[in-house]
Design brief:
It is a single chain. This protein is mostly helical. Helix content is 80%, strand content 0%. It has one helix and no strands.
């Protein structure tokens, strides 16, 4: 009888450990995917801001005569 209780407790502990590993594994994957998404979003935002700033600071040259085309 005592051996059955120990086996049951070990089985329960093993199932709990496996369950926690799966749960934390999925949480870690979700956190990594969220961080990657944030990095992509922030990089795209910085690219757009830099591009708009550059265009504002360096407007296109206005062409006046034929010599400007060559």
């Amino acid at each position: 009888m005592r051996g059955e209780g120990i086996k049951g407790a070990l089985a329960l502990a093993g199932v709990l450990i496996l369950g926690l590993l799966f749960l934390f594994g999925f949480l870690i994957i979700a956190a990594v995917l969220i961080l990657i998404g944030l990095l992509i979003f922030l990089g795209f935002y910085a690219y757009l801001r830099l591009k708009l700033w550059w265009r504002k600071r360096h407007p296109p040259k206005e062409l006046e005569g034929p010599e400007d085309y060559f």
